[in-house]
Amino acid sequence: MSSRTMSVRALATRASAVPANDPSRKVLAEGAGVNKAVAAIEYAVRGELVLRAEALAKRLPSVDLPFEKIVYCNIGNPQSVGQSPITFVRQVLAGITCPSLIENEGVFPKDVVERVRAVLRASHGIGAYSESQGIELIRERVAMAMEKRDGGVPTNPNNIFLTNGASEAVKTILSMLVRDENDGVLIPIPQYPLYSAAMTSFGGQQVGYYLDEDNGWSLNIDELEKRLAEARGKGISVRGLVVINPGNPTGQVLSRENMEDVVAFCEKENLVIMADEVYQKNVYTPEKPFVSFKKVVCEMGADLELASFHSVSKGVMGECGLRGGYMEIVNMERYVQELIYKVLSVSLCSNIIGQVAIDLMMTPPQPGDPSYELYNKEVTEIYGALRNKAIAMSDGLNTLEGVTCNPSEGAMYLFPRITLPPAAIKEAAARGMASADVLYCIEMLEATGICVVPGSGFLQQEGTYHFRTTFLPPENEIKGVIASMRRFHDRFMSKYS
Amino acid sequence: MSSRTMSVRALATRASAVPANDPSRKVLAEGAGVNKAVAAIEYAVRGELVLRAEALAKRLPSVDLPFEKIVYCNIGNPQSVGQSPITFVRQVLAGITCPSLIENEGVFPKDVVERVRAVLRASHGIGAYSESQGIELIRERVAMAMEKRDGGVPTNPNNIFLTNGASEAVKTILSMLVRDENDGVLIPIPQYPLYSAAMTSFGGQQVGYYLDEDNGWSLNIDELEKRLAEARGKGISVRGLVVINPGNPTGQVLSRENMEDVVAFCEKENLVIMADEVYQKNVYTPEKPFVSFKKVVCEMGADLELASFHSVSKGVMGECGLRGGYMEIVNMERYVQELIYKVLSVSLCSNIIGQVAIDLMMTPPQPGDPSYELYNKEVTEIYGALRNKAIAMSDGLNTLEGVTCNPSEGAMYLFPRITLPPAAIKEAAARGMASADVLYCIEMLEATGICVVPGSGFLQQEGTYHFRTTFLPPENEIKGVIASMRRFHDRFMSKYS
Question: Are residues B162 and B129 located together in one domain of the fold?
């Protein structure tokens, strides 16, 4: 992107005029006809496997196919596989959508009506653009909730930006951080492909650091130092570090001690921390509670810049379709705060329903509120089911021959490692596949209807093979999914042995 | 952006390692610390004037200020200034948000209940990600509605992409079209600053073509040819043309004949047409009905690529806060369709409420449906008020000394031209303002509380001065707004005469 600034000079030195476009060709055309960086984007979570799954789904039911339905384990989309929404959340959202509903006594509980009134007083409703940064009242309430979460560490509502999902916030920060093709950002391997896709489109360098699979996907500071030195040796100006905690696709939860080491490293090396914390409510190990990077940075008094991300799509709400997210920036220049405002203002504001959903996630009903009992029951059930399924699925996967799978301490995924026979690796290469795990996943889909994502879509150590699967199908189906995976796995291993 | 592809080579030829970052400085910092193209974005609709208005609003009520409230005429945000939402729309959206509501007889009319059921059958509800391109049923219904609108011209649902507002669609197409800093797109002057902001951030060349103010802001083919030749002479590869119809900020509606000339020009020169048609329902001149570029392109049999944009934010719904938009692509390569899918898939999907709102806008209740009578009454009232206000406001502005204002044939704006005294121009220059219309607008805001946007934010002929104002305040306030503008205008002219 440094070339953007050279445009005037570049044009001035061109002597001849550009000929008219060739009318026999499309303007937007494969190859030279589209922006190369955009064309190079890859996003496996909705890639080849999913398109094939959707094509198969259209043929169902079919006597030619050995399964009755597609089981989508490719994406953390809980409500698409049967998880119910939280009643309180939907009642408030319906009330602000159609305010005449709260005028009738008894349609909604009293605390729902109060929440609806508060939002309507603080805004022009869901049909008007809000401030570009998000409704002020909601940012204030999010700030208070974060302070409570972080044991009193102060939060400024002006540093909070409400966005269409966390993705928009991540892209906004990366678009500012990456100045040209010599700028790099440290990104975990394996990673959530939003980061690689965004870096590809902004033309920066992905500087991968490997998570340590043999030690529960832990984050090793020696590895960070090694990869940083390597990148600098190649002339890359490394400006930030992405950390996903709880991990996606790996499911690990960082210890406080490990986080302190990461913060100290970033402070010493002057790196912006981008902390993807969208799975903060999906933690299943009591001995490793979620701690925010904000809390660690502030309690250490570290002098570094931090952006953290959160979303209504995950947690126990799982409200993916609302596209509600937010970002908090910490220790950033006032200028940067204003620049983010400006960038977001070009799209006017994020959708208001998503903004309100963020408020409901951060400040849920409290004991004594009319909605509390039902809310608590629903949340407890969803959380309990997620935790049970995480354990059942990793236990099940570990019984497959040649498969090892770290337990999921958090998030919604498992990333089992599969030992593939040489014949399968050869077959995948012969068919021009990016990795042999693509072959494995395609054959799994075609044999069982289960759609998972090849590990190569998230990057992995050279010569290793994985896949990412969610554990989101309903509790009573999980056993069947595992049994189905086992039958396929055994057949696949025999076929290629 | 061509430099993106040079990264490997560029890095390989750098001999020395990059030093560590300077720990005494912020990483993201004004000047060299952020991406220059992003920093250069300008977006006047939410710029300096609006920030000043918001600061004033926080001081109200105040005896020091000569007005009681801020009148926001800076942005087409109808529901923020009193326009009511359409009952039918909000009932369906509340129903899909909280499906238990439709189980109780009598809460909603029967056709609302049926619409809710249809959406729930065709999707996993508002809480699940949909297909990246948008829910298939909704794309099919949009396609049918477009066919009806365009007198039978066929539409393929696979060419429709549902997005978070039209802005996301516009940015997606431009990001693919602009390959490097030598690529340009023809953009009207004056224009809606989304286009300039997006071109700035993608590093392409804005090739401005002037609309003819003296002829009702018409679009002149000679002007297009002249600007295209000029740009090619400078080495710019011009690849597309943006046309906003009805116009923003100008309010003109193109005649069919004029559109045919534009299409023929773009076909001859092999330019992609980007047709911003978000104001297609805001047409106030019976003798100039809205015609879509899709219809003209197809009926002429023109061999060119077209992307057209629509939104729920405008029209009579004015549902800005829902962020619902869509794009149709016509005559594009299958590869391009797949590339758009891939780009959008990185953000997973647009918000589902916005998707459903698009469906409701395109296929509203029909005569005989239980909701039709109320729907028709509400729509007729809103439309009638918009038309009356458009006339009242342009008539009023034309009575100001030295002000000329083309009537608004469509959209939600007027773009009056103001003749500013030399002393005002000198004063603005002395205060470092980008244009003297900034001075005019700031003084108007401080004297009246009315917030409009300087013409320089939309670009304009050198040496001319304008401002953009909406005509959205309630009908009973419009007279007061005009009177207030007149008092200010007279004082401003005396002050600087």
Answer: yes
| Residue B158 counted as domain residue | yes
Chain position carrying tokens 């994502």: A453
Gap between the Cα atoms of A135 and A302, Å rounded: 30
Of B4, B228, B320, B382, which to mutate for an interface test with A (greatest number of A Cβ within 10 Å)? B4
* pLDDT tens-place string over residues A289-305: 999 999 999 999 999 99
CATH at residue B459: 3.90.1150.10
A271 and A148 within one domain: yes
Write down how long chain B is: 497
The letter for the amino acid at A434 is A
Which residues constitute the domain of residue B189?
123-362
Q: What's the rounded Cα separation, in Å, for the pair A132 and A158?
A: 12
Summarize pLDDT for A180-231 with one digit per residue, the tens.
Answer: 999 999 999 999 989 999 999 999 999 999 999 999 999 999 999 999 999 9
Rounded CA separation B23/A270 (Å): 5
Give contacts of B7 with chain A, Cβ < 8 Å.
Answer: 181-182, 203, 205
**What mean pLDDT value characterizes chain A?**
92
What gap in Å lies between CA A359 and CA A379, rounded to an integer? 16
pLDDT confidence of residue A411 = 94
Length of chain A: 497
User: ipTM, 2 decimals?
Assistant: 0.92
| A residues 173..192 contacting B (CB < 8 A) | 175-182
Q: Which of B309, B334, B362 marks a domain boundary?
A: B362
d(CA A239, CA A269): 9
Given a cut of 50, is residue B4 above it in pLDDT?
A: no
The pLDDT tens digits for B33-54 are 999 989 888 887 777 888 899 8
* Residue B479, both tokens: 């007279």
> Quick one: B275 and B354 in the same domain?
yes
What b/e readout covers A451-468, taking b as 16+ CB neighbours within 10 angstroms? bbbbbbbbbbeeebbbbb
Q: β-strands A306-311, A272-276: how paired?
A: parallel
Helix, coil or strand: residue A470: strand
In a domain, B8, yes or no: no
